[in-house]
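FORM 7B: Structural annotation worksheet

SECTION A. Query
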Amino acid sequence: DIYKNNLSNKDWQAVGFNPNKLEKHFIKHSDDFEFKTKEEYEEFAKNFMNKEISETVESFRSDDGYVFKYDIKNNIFADAKPNGITETCYKPTRGLEYWKDQVKKYGKEKM
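SECTION B. Predicted structure
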């Protein structure tokens, strides 16, 4: 089961938003992206969270197991709960400075 694997840190992967919070996040962050539906936004966020680390995509896991990810080139930030539920996905107005603040505040284990 994907949730159990995520909680035990085995092959962690994002699974999408909590259905009760998806609409709120889509409305709040829809101006950051060009998605027409909340389903497109959710699929993008899930795929982004599952994206491999690269020269332009950084990630870390916090002490409490949350996974944070940032795309430096495209200024996309997202995070997810330890069980894989995506919390948010957006383009922070402060860009890389925002990411550095998150690393300083929550950073524990580079992924």
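SECTION C. Observations
The chain has a mean pLDDT of 89. The beta strands are 16-17, 57-62, 67-71, 76-80, 85-90, 107-110.

SECTION D. Sign-off
Analyst initials: ____
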